[in-house]
Design brief:
Layout: E1 2-6, E2 9-12, E3 17-24, E4 33-38, E5 45-50, E6 57-59, E7 67-72, E8 77-82, E9 91-98, E10 110-113, E11 117-122
Parallel strand pairs: 2-11
Antiparallel strand pairs: 1-3, 3-8, 4-5, 4-9, 5-6, 7-8, 9-10, 9-11
């Protein structure tokens, strides 16, 4: 699976962005998908994840209620809708494909990664 993330940019605090992650390959619908982020000088952290059929989602406490993960298997795409953005959300955001149909909060359990897209939230 090859992943291509897009949709990052510069936004003011309180604004919104929607990230997309387009996947190649016919097996996209077999993978759970996750979003992670990494801020300068910090470790990569879990943001959100969704099971292979969209039936279940997980969120980091820091984004719960503000971010929404979804997927469209017909389009081989997973999305991350980010609302009420805060300066502390500034990071490079990565999408990743999990090795099973479920999800995981651990980045080292994801087998395929996109290139990352930068989100900058100004105060």
């Amino acid at each position: 699976v090859q992943l291509q993330a897009s949709g990052g940019g510069l936004v003011q605090a309180g604004g919104s962005l929607r990230l997309s992650c387009a996947a190649s390959g016919r097996t996209f619908s077999s993978y759970g998908m996750g979003w992670f982020r990494q801020a300068p000088g910090k470790e990569r952290e879990f943001v959100a994840a969704i099971t292979y059929n969209g039936g279940s989602t997980d969120y980091a406490d820091s984004v719960k209620g503000r971010f929404t993960v979804s997927r469209d298997n017909a389009k081989n795409t997973v999305y991350l809708q980010m609302d009420s953005l805060k300066p502390e959300d500034t990071a490079v955001y990565y999408c990743a494909a999990y090795r099973y149909r479920g999800t995981s909060l651990r980045w080292d359990e994801y087998d395929y990664w996109g290139q990352g897209t930068l989100v900058t939230v100004s105060s």
